[in-house]
Each structure stands twice: as structure tokens, then as C-alpha cells.
């Protein structure tokens, strides 16, 4: 079964993305306001994409700080996410976010908010920097300043 994932219509992301054309090196800046622009192709319940890499610069982002040690057995997800601290990180230099694209619809945890944004039942992008800041990406807290450059590797055909 092949399907095209489309983000829910109530998903709001008004951040700017920079698109670079590989052959000529030209870049364009677009503002993502239509969730139908965010697509990935999947097959059955398997990952068919390695996800993507985002390079973020300028402004600030909110990230959950990841624990050094996890309680065993693992807490249910709702309890796990409530136990994490969320910090606003000023981007001193580029920050890299590495993620995976999943083939099931994300659901909002409406009772959990970070910097005015509802948290999804899973966050797939983890951030790293060369100055020690990072964590689990939650939100862009300065959408008019933060700039993203994205590299995505979505599969066109799945062989098994």
C-alpha cells in the first residue's frame, strides 16, 4: 500500500525555509503556511524515509532537554514528556536537527504546551550544536528571525 502523508490542516508552521537548487546553487526563501507542502511517501507501517536534516540559524528555538539516564521501565509517553524541561535556546551559531519521517499521523497533546505550542505525541527531530546546546526540537520561538535550510531524502520506491 502506497500512501502520501499530508500534515493535518490545523498544523501551523509559519517559519521560513531556504531551498537550494543543487545544479545552479541558487537559493529561494519561502514561508511554509500550507501543511500540504510538507509531504512524504510511505509504504505500510515501515519507514520509507531517512527523514531529514535541518540547519537552523538566527533567532531562538525551544527544545526539550534530554535526560542522561532514563528510568526503567520507561514511563508512558505522556508522563515522560511532562518530566522533561523545555529551554529556549538562542542560536549562537548554526544548530543541526536530525529527524525521521513517520508514516502515522501525529497527534497533539493539548494538555502539554511549550512556549505556547501544543506538543505532539512524538517529536522526531533532535538538535545538536558545536557549543553544547541541543535537545528534542519542539518549536521555533522567533519565526520571523529563524532560518532553516533543509535536506530531505524521501524514498520514491521501496524494495524488500
Automatic annotation (TrEMBL):
Record-given protein name: DUF1907 domain-containing protein
Domain DUF1907: 38-157
Lineage: superkingdom: Eukaryota
A UniProt-annotated Pfam family: DUF1907
GO cellular component terms attached to this protein's record: nucleus
Amino acid at each position: 500500500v502506497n500512501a502520501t502523508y499530508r500534515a493535518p490542516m490545523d498544523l501551523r508552521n509559519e517559519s521560513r525555509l531556504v531551498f537550494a537548487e543543487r545544479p545552479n546553487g541558487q537559493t529561494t526563501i519561502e514561508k511554509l503556511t500550507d501543511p500540504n507542502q510538507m509531504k512524504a511517501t510511505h509504504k505500510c507501517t515501515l519507514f520509507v524515509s531517512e527523514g531529514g536534516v535541518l540547519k537552523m540559524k538566527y533567532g531562538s528555538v525551544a527544545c526539550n532537554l534530554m535526560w542522561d539516564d532514563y528510568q526503567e521501565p520507561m514511563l508512558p509517553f505522556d508522563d515522560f514528556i511532562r518530566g522533561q524541561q523545555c529551554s529556549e535556546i538562542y542560536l549562537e551559531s548554526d544548530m543541526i536537527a536530525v529527524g525521521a519521517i513517520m508514516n502515522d499521523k501525529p497527534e497533539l497533546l493539548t494538555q502539554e504546551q511549550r512556549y505556547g505550542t501544543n506538543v505532539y505525541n512524538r517529536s522526531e527531530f533532535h538538535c545538536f550544536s558545536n557549543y553544547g546546546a541541543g535537545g528534542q526540537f519542539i518549536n521555533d520561538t522567533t519565526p520571523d528571525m529563524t532560518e532553516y535550510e533543509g535536506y530531505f531524502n524521501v524514498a520514491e520506491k521501496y524494495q524488500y
